[in-house]
Amino acid sequence: MAEAMKDAVKAAWEGEDPHPALEAAGQAGADGIRAYIDSHIPPPNSPVTVHGGWVYNRKARKCVYVHGKGFDKPLFDTGALYNAFDYELEE
């Protein structure tokens, strides 16, 4: 990702289109996250995540009830986490 960003800066500096290098940087970042997920490091689910419960909302400065997801399977097993990472170039 760093190499692609370096190429984007170089292209922009030389008056060329940096978008191909920025696309490559975004893809490298998304692929890096997916590779980390694929390394099978199990992310633990907290009991509140699974069953729900009361948590303290620091911004609102009060306790709020959150509904659990109802199962203990990590999101990467369902594919939801894996497919959630993407990138977008905006001008």
Task: Give the tags.
91 residues, alpha+beta, two-stranded antiparallel sheet, 13% strand, elongated
Topology:
Elements: H1 2-13, H2 19-38, H3 47-51, E1 52-57, E2 62-67, H4 75-78
Antiparallel strand pairs: 1-2
Helix pairs in contact: 1-2
Report the radius of gyration as a whole number of Å: 19 Å
Q: How would you classify the helix and strand content by structural class?
A: alpha+beta
Sketch the major β-sheet. 2 strands, antiparallel
* Weakly predicted, low-confidence segments: none
* Number of E-state strands: 2
The overall average pLDDT, rounded, is 85
Query: What is the chain-wise order of helices and strands?
Result: HHHEEH
C-alpha termini separation? 20 Å
Number of helices: 4
Percent of residues in helices comes to: 40-55%
- CA-based shape: elongated
Largest sheet strand order: 1-2
> What number of domains?
2
Task: Describe the structure concisely.
The chain has helices spanning 2-13, 19-38, 47-51, 75-78, and strands spanning 52-57, 62-67. It has 91 residues and is α+β, with helices and mostly antiparallel strands.
What does this structure look like?
The chain is of the alpha+beta class. The chain has 2 domains: 1-40, no CATH class; 45-71, no CATH class. Helix content is 45%, strand content 13%. The protein contains 4 helices and 2 strands. The protein has helices at residues 2-13, 19-38, 47-51, 75-78; strands at 52-57, 62-67. Strands 1-2 form a two-stranded antiparallel ribbon. A hairpin with a 4-residue loop joins β1 and β2 (62-67). The radius of gyration is 19 Å and the shape is elongated. It starts with a helix and ends in a 13-residue tail after the last helix. The mean pLDDT is 85.
